[in-house]
Specification:
15% strand, 183 residues, alpha/beta, five-stranded parallel sheet, homodimer, 9 helices, Rossmann fold
């Protein structure tokens, strides 16, 4: 089995992978799925509090490599027969390194400029709404503090999502096809 | 004046900017130029020891924002009449933030996968020469510790250098022309 990790800053367009996954019938696992699965495994009902507590507990148990450890378990338990599994929401280089040590993993990073991402996320074309801009920068900062900058810089594939959306989806699909060996 | 900063992991192909700079007659300033200039300003002859000591001293004086502070001074003193100046070798987000606060700066990041960069730098096609691979990873690590991952992830433009070299140079030139408003 080969894992395909999708990463990118907020608003870069990572969700485009969902449509491609459907088209090529490839399972998508999000880090959130893993936490919910772990919550259920502990016999707790799924509600925001339990899921939140499980996330904290996983980080206590596995340190910087959480949620990679339960993620790999989850994939192996549930999707052992799949040739490819997409993992959404990878943002820590520790998680990447852990998974790469135990499985085959290719990382696709999606890049858009901060200006473009801000416009997408805020639905506006003006950077002078400083409150929104600060919120945007803080959100970026949180992701970067998880070491997503390292994941992006060391990505196996980089797809730029800056101009025409269909061009981007096309580039992403071509990258995707390279990984899953479809011509 | 607008500054154009070039960043990218080792072996990504940053030096391609030199030819473009010549073609469009745009000055290129490297962080090394700045340190040499500061060395001379202090009346010291240019030798590796003096240049090294100056770099250390600049970091002591300006902290994380070195070498951005003397770099901006250098550009303003020497190239005040230029419309555009390229700055090579930006690798710290603190330097980027400092320069953006005081001048107009667009960052172009160049991305190649670790595998491709390793092959370029080692001139080999095998990752199993573990000694070389470790050296490569350590060099990456040093750059990432300077926060180059943040500079890359927050770049205004991303150019991928993965396949055909002329395609890459072409993409880089198109990006470059967008910034300097040439059609």
């Amino acid at each position: 089995m080969k894992l395909i990790g999708i990463t990118g800053m907020p608003g870069s367009g990572k969700s485009a992978i969902t449509k491609l996954a459907e088209k090529y019938k490839i399972v998508v696992v999000s880090m959130g799925d893993v936490v919910r699965y772990e919550t259920l495994k502990q016999g707790m009902p799924l509600n925001p509090e339990n899921v939140g507590n499980t996330a904290v507990k996983l980080r206590e148990i596995y340190g910087k490599e959480a949620i990679a450890v339960p993620c790999l378990n989850y994939v192996n338990e549930k999707y052992n027969n799949e040739d490819f599994v997409i993992i959404e929401g990878i943002r820590s280089i520790y998680e990447v390194n852990y998974i790469k040590k135990h499985a085959e993993l290719d990382i696709i990073a999606i890049h858009s400029s901060p200006k473009t991402r801000f416009e997408r996320l805020s639905g506006r074309n003006r950077e002078d709404d400083s409150n929104d801009w600060n919120t945007f920068v803080e959100r970026d900062e949180r992701e970067l503090n998880f070491s997503i900058g390292r994941v992006i810089s060391l990505a196996d594939y980089m797809v730029v999502n800056e101009g025409n959306y269909m061009d981007f989806v096309n580039d992403l699909e071509n990258t995707f096809k390279k990984i899953i060996n479809v011509n």
